[in-house]
Amino acid sequence: MSDIVELRNHIRETRHFRIRLVISAIGVVVLFSLLFGRFFYLQVLQEEHYTTLAEANRIAIQPLTPNRGLIFDRNGDILAQNYTAYTLEIIPDQVKNLDAAINELATIIEITPEDRRRFNKLKLENTRFKSLPIRSRLTDFEVARFAENQYRFPGMDIKAHPLRHYPKGELVSHVIGYIGRISDKDLEQLEADKRLKNYYGSTHIGRIGIEKSYESVLHGQTGFEQVETDAVGRPVRTLSRVAPTAGNDLTLSLDIGLQQAAVQAFGDYRGALVALDPSNGEILAFVSKPGFDPNLFVDGIDHLNWRLLNESIDRPLNNRALRGVYPPGSTFKPFMALAGLELGKRSLHYAFNDPGFFSLPGSSHRFRDWKPGGHGWVDLRKSLVISCDTYYYMLAHDLGITNIHDFIGQFGFGKETGIDIPGEAAGLLPSPEWKKRRFNQNWLPGDTISVGIGQGFNLSTPLQLTFAMMLLANDGRAYRPHFVRQQVDHYKNFVKDNFVEEIYRLNLRQEYLDSVRQALADVTRPGGTASRAGANTAYTFAGKTGTSQVINIKQGERYNASKIDERHRDHALFTAFAPVENPRIVLTVLIENGGSGGSTAAPIARKVLDYFFLGTMPEPAEKAG
Amino acid sequence: MITPDIKQAWHYCTRYIDNFLLAGIFLLMLTGLIVLYSATGGSSARVISQLINMVVAYVVMWVVANIPPQRIMRMAFPLYVLGIVLLIAVALFGEVQNGARRWLNLGIVHIQPSELLKIAVPLMMAWYFDKAHITLRWRDYVIAALILLLPVALIVRQPDLGTALLILISGFYVIFLAGLSWRLMTGLAVAVTVSLPLLWSFGMHDYQRKRIMTMLDPSQDALGAGYHTIQSSIAIGSGGIAGKGWLKGTQSQLDFLPEPSTDFIFSVFSEEFGLIGNSLLLSLYLIVIGRCMVITASAPTRFARLVAGSITLTFFTYVFVNMGMVSGILPVVGIPLPLISYGGTSMVTILLGFGILMSIHTHPKLVKT
Description:
heterodimer; A: about 625 residues; alpha+beta; Penicillin-binding protein 2a (Domain 2); 7-stranded mixed beta sheet; 5-stranded antiparallel beta sheet; 23 helices; about 40% helix; elongated; B: about 375 residues; mainly alpha; 3-stranded antiparallel beta sheet; 14 helices; 3 strands; about 70% helix; globular
């Protein structure tokens, strides 16, 4: 090959190579432009989007849960408190084989079958992404032991929670109620009330009782902390902080000593007791027996305990004082007497010879007195002292149902008293309109007769009876019954104590009021139905016994307690105030299936009053029969 | 006062160094150190260690630059053979790390022979083309392709898809620059397109498939493999036009970025210096590549042209693939950003390439007679 050919080839090759090189250079520029375009897109067009993402990456809003307000009784005894407890929580979504993981966990920390049941129940009620407690109240040793092994348990973590504790347990369960874990249903409700933001970070909410009705006061204001976190979510530093404001403390008018005395006086009986201060409507004692341990509910009650409570024949979850409706029986009579006097159907001196029964004109049906053969000559005073039925059959007939309904309704029967815990029952004060509406039946003259002695369709709660008795005791001042005396905000140094509210005032003639009260005072004296309970008191007290029928007794049959199943025996009632001259306490005692008011309920009331006036704590009563 | 002796010595030290290229390299290295300081959260230990890498790499570059291209050419064949032997040794006795057999334990040092092939393969191919007929025939291209595919196949088996791909590309550049006809290249492109589905089904490991799937839609696997891409896109995007400022990138400082000092160092830079910084960095790379192209264009021999061109384009490929992967337009493959990412091996390999370029440019151009 000649040099010229070679040189020509060389030149051609160089030219070809340079063309390829130029193509490469163009490729380089094009691809770099592509990169620039990508950067322009990310950093100019999408900057806002990515800045938001970067901020979201870096900044976490952490709620600061406020401490819940404490609850005290009137003497400063604590009824609901907080303490910090370590809880082991699991996020079900982050654990692959939950059962196996819990089994493994059980090898280092005690997990009872109850814990598992409770956890499984919570798991069903919540989403898989929510952190749920499996064990609460871990000891320091258990906390340390888990921390050592934590790497083995992804999706599980120990959290410090302020936990609610009710040191008095069952004693005040029906008043204080309890808090429970916030459920999805609660969240919906909070959302609807526009309160959800304040619960960001809260785990519990008031379920019943004071805890529920004063939820907004007790909960407090949630604070927020903006923290910068790293990729693993560890806080690096705090950017800003709004401190939480603890809930307000509440002081109740309840006297835990009186409450204790009442529970002890009850002994094994089921029933209810309500005691209030007639000068302002403050509740002094509020018992529903049996109670339950509210601490069981704080972490979510497990299935077994729930069944034990819910299916118990004694119905411990039923707040008898607030929601239990019973025929008021003879405790209705003082209000009937006032109706007769005020409406001019009876005078103080009117008397008649009681044959022991009453029959409507033109009817042979006999409304019998509790005492066969009657009480002889009976006037208004005696009708109350010996609790004559015939007197009130006649009076009811003379008054008519509309008068009874309208007059006695003023004492609060048949409607809620407006007490400051939720769930109150309204009871029933019957009227022809009600019967038509309820049963689509016309009112019969005989219906009125039973109403006259507090039976028939009549239903009222122990709270209502106490409210009515308060009006009798304090000359007709209708104070709203309430538990909370004082609300203390430690942050604003603010105390709210204007909880007393006079809803209305009944205008009753003093002469009539005095006469009825005097008659009630005689009930506890020799000859009265509660004379045994009233013997040898250091103070005066007035009251009215009552027996509320659980089953109807057929015509011609007699009520015989020993022949009737215990659960079908009559309820015993006693409602009273003391001292007679200047009442400081009004109370009602209801003993379920306790028999007669005079023999069962009145002695219990006496014991409670003895504690109130003399400070003597009763020995638990022995159950009769 | 500079005495003639010192002048002499200075001349001796710098006569085979291309100052233009060196200036570009130094500017990129300086940028690298500044970003590295930020990426490590203010660790001067890392910076000093990288400085040592740079000094070592510089010495390597200087030594190579002082070797005449003719001698480099003579070394091509032995280097290639050594590389193949080492790759076979790896396949037989190599250590397994992270599920891949890539390392060879020589007692004192652990070496990764695939790094050597990054240089040896283009050298060998260029050497072959140089030794072949004046006018290249299709047979020459086939032999060059075999020279290329033998080590690539061995590296794919390790498996190290990223390195294999890069060597494949650097070898392709040699063939392309040697003048492979457009018709053949079109045919090759068609063949590759057809074989891709086959490669997908039979030639890939699950994790490799996953990487490609994730590249197509990072949000599909936001907490797994896509996490890297998403976080680094967030870093770049939130940098905006002017950037968040040095040491002030939240994505990098709070550990949201994976490998912030090596593969993903560009997202640190991008977050802190913004689009302005990115443009300057791209320009700097463009200047360096441009200078390399000038050197390539004026290279005297076929061997020199092909080697210089391949090194230049491979350098560009590193830059493009790294930035493309970090900004989410290419799959995540473990390729560092040249001259900026932390790491001794890549620094040495890159500067060794520049050493060859300088050697080609600064030694007397002997035209074959």
